[in-house]
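target protein:
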Amino acid sequence: MSRIVIAEFMDEGAVAQLAKSHEVFYDPTLVDDIPRLTSAVANTDALIVRNRTQVRGQLLTAMSQCRVVGRLGVGLDNIDLSGCESQGIQVIPATGANALSVAEYVISTALLLLRGSFQSTHLVAQGLWPRSNLSNGREIRGKKMGLIGFGSIGQLTASLAKNVGMEVVAFDSVMPETHPAFRQHGVQFVEFDNLVAMSDVISLHIPLLPSTKGLFDKRTLSSMKSDAVLINTSRGEIVDEECLAEALKTNKLGGAAIDVFGIEPLPISPHFIDCPNLLLTPHIAGVTTESNKRVSFLVAEKVLEALQ
């Protein structure tokens, strides 16, 4: 029997599946108590985390017995991959399991921001009637969706976007224009600068790397259409938050939905206060009731296989 530590929230059914054949220590608050977490992993065979647990440094050193790290999600920037490899630790992400949740977030926020009329409840309830001010919203059909990154989530987002009548273009630095995925999904490959300039909605689906950090800075944001919408569900540091806020406040950008941030949880952020057409969500684009089950059971299954 192996020992499994789960440091962040996981579907209870998947936890129970793991506990049928192994000793499981499940405490979703462990991520916030580093000394206790470090002590807990000292004699564990498997560690399961989401995006907040930093599997590196002192924590990784303490994992001398660990054989596998299960990641309840797909981004791996919180895990020292080379360090895990050197210790013989297998890292297992939940590839594809939360793709639908993220894709639906992208389409729903694009609809909301383009229409621009869904934050009027407090005005209408107060007896005001902002009908004329809110009658200039835009429809999503016929708009151009630009996808930066065309992996599994980008491809599913493209399918949903086409289903609501959008034209979709995409750029991926590691996929050539001849890659069959573009033809399969009826998506045109467009170089980065052209995509930024032509798109009505831009959605980011790329990892945080030295080459992508700060990719959407003042220069890139100023290259977008002044009424375009930016959606970031990838990693926070890809977008310069202060430059984004300035673009929104000066009407140089039509709207933004930001689900990920350079620091999480997001501290008090004066630059975002009084930003028009801005939606901030706490890193939940990939988390729904359904996706949590898919992610949790996929990782549970793969961890069980690795421990055999």
In short: The first strand starts at residue 3 and ends at 6. DSSP finds twelve helices and twelve strands in the chain. Residues 99-280 form a domain with the Rossmann fold fold (CATH 3.40.50.720). Residues 289-307 form the longest helix (19 residues).
